[in-house]
């Protein structure tokens, strides 16, 4: 019963977290611009989804499979639209190709070189690295936030849903006694709290008129 409730909460919270990117998608389509849109979270989340999709298939966990199949589709859409409207397509495309190379290399490694007895453990560790990088990526603009005293480049809905999703997955992993689900989601809780502090520290009414800072 508890596991079923946690599975449902993980599904709802994670899909809500992925869906926050729809506001960025609408902004890109409306303005035909990627200004003030963070690309790195799209990329790291897509890598995270693809790796966990493989983990879910190997383990036979329907919750993990469903969440990450939908997440991978959404993140890929966000990446394609970002690439289309980005004025500097070369570095964006290089990052996407690097992601594909890492995912393809990882799949080949786990399929060909790792024996079936340890494949799940190795893949779980691989997925954990991507999850941690996904949760840390929104903090890439931390210096920009502090310099500008503005949180415009951070998403408050994403911060809320990330906190709920990472907390849910942590509890789900504890219930399954699966450290590969539990441990990498703890940084999601920590980084969400850091972003909440930034929103509290630099409230909208305290922000100065926005002027883009150099990347």
Automatic annotation (TrEMBL):
Location(s) in or outside the cell: Cell membrane; Golgi apparatus membrane
GO cellular component: Golgi membrane; plasma membrane
Signal sequence, renumbered to the chain: 1-21
Stretches that traverse the bilayer: 65-85, 92-114, 120-142, 154-174, 180-198
One GO molecular-function entry: sugar transmembrane transporter activity
Keyword annotations: Cell membrane, Golgi apparatus, Membrane, Repeat, Signal, Sugar transport, Transmembrane, Transmembrane helix, Transport
Mode of membrane association: Multi-pass membrane protein
Location (main, coarse): membrane
Classification via Gene3D superfamilies: 1.20.1280.290
Family: Belongs to the SWEET sugar transporter family.
Name recorded for this polypeptide: Sugar transporter SWEET1
Organism name: Junco hyemalis
């Amino acid at each position: 019963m508890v596991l079923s409730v946690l599975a449902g909460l993980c599904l709802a919270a994670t899909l809500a977290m992925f869906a926050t990117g729809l506001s960025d998608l609408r902004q890109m389509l409306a303005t035909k611009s990627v200004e003030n849109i963070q690309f790195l979270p799209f990329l790291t989340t897509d890598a995270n989804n693809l790796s966990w999709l493989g983990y879910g298939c190997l383990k036979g966990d329907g919750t993990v499979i469903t969440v990450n199949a939908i997440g991978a589709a959404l993140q890929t859409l966000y990446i394609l639209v970002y690439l289309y409207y980005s004025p500097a397509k070369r570095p964006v495309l290089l990052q996407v190709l690097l992601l594909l190379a890492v995912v393809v290399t990882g799949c080949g490694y786990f399929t060909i070189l790792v024996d079936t007895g340890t494949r799940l453990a190795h893949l779980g560790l691989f997925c954990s690295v991507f999850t941690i990088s996904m949760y840390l990526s929104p903090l890439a603009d931390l210096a920009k936030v502090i310099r500008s005293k503005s949180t415009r480049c951070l998403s408050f809905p994403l911060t809320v849903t990330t906190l709920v999703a990472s907390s849910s997955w942590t509890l789900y992993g504890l219930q399954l006694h699966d450290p590969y689900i539990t441990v990498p989601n703890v940084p999601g809780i920590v980084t969400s709290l850091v972003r909440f502090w930034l929103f509290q520290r630099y409230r909208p009414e305290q922000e100065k008129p926005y002027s883009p800072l150099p990347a």
